[in-house]
Amino acid sequence: MEYNDIELVHMVNENNEEAKDILYEKYNYIIDILMTKYKNIFYVLGMDFTEVRQEAMLAFTDALVKYSSEKNASLPTFLTLVIERKIQNSIRKADTIKNKKRLANYSLDYEYESFNKPLKDIISDPNSDPFIEVQSKEAYNELVEKIKNILSPLEYEVYELLINGFNYIDIASKLNKKPKQIDNTIQRIRGKIKELL
Questions:
Q1: d(CA 35, CA 42)
Q2: pLDDT of res. 83
Q3: Are 164 and 90 part of one and the same domain?
Q4: pLDDT on residue 109
Q5: Residue 112 region, left (φ>0) first, then alpha (ψ -120 to 50), else beta?
Q6: Is residue 117 part of a domain?
């Protein structure tokens, strides 16, 4: 016997696993489409594709439980909306975690156990003039801002990875680009910065 979506959703709400399987078989393409849509972002943020897919599957089940024909949306539309929101929330969370890690890696206030002092004390010169240090920092920040303004978004992304020790092959892999394209981008960056200086 064939059931329509509304009947199958009602059966899912009564814990009918077979109805859930039928709906999954019918609409799992939605998960595939959304995973493909965001796959480059997953890669850049270092997200585990399998974990995100599991989150999407949980969102699928949640959507089935929460769906009502009174929502003025078809089941596929509702599924797409709920699953995409879940994926976007996962991306936001991963981006926040990545930024916190990145900031922690460069924090001058992080105290290193082996030295029993923060990074700013380890790298600073006790004989230096604080006024000169402030001027140098301002000049550095101004230079970074100028560099950011002359580079395209891709060039700036490559520049940041480059100054953090990545080579052009690693950058190409991280940004899902061809090594030759990244090498050319690096040459353009060098040319632009040379002109700036």
A1: 9
A2: 92
A3: no
A4: 60
A5: beta
A6: no
What average pLDDT does the structure give for the chain? 80
The average pLDDT across 165-189 equals 89
**Residue 115 belongs to a domain:** no
Q: Token match 């998960």: residue?
A: 31
Structural domain boundaries enclosing 164: 127-196
pLDDT tens digits, 81-140:
999 999 998 888 887 766 666 555 545 565 656 556 665 555 555 555 555 555 566 766
* Structure-block tokens of residue 126: 């006790």
CA separation for the pair 127, 124 (Å, rounded): 9
Q: What is the DSSP string of 12-61?
A: HHTT-HHHHHHHHHHHHHHHHHHHHHHHHHHHHHT--HHHHHHHHHHHHH
Domain match, 96 and 134 both: no
User: The CATH number of the domain where 148 resides is what?
Assistant: 1.10.10
Q: What is the pTM of this model?
A: 0.49
Question: Amino acid identity of 15?
Answer: N
Structurally, the chain folds into a number of domains equal to 2
Cα–Cα distance, 160 to 72 (Å, whole number): 47
In a domain, 109, yes or no: no
Torsion angle, CA of 87/88/93/97, rounded to 10 degrees? 100
Helix (H, G, I), strand (E, B) or coil at 180: helix
Pairwise CA distance, residues 148 & 31, whole Å? 37
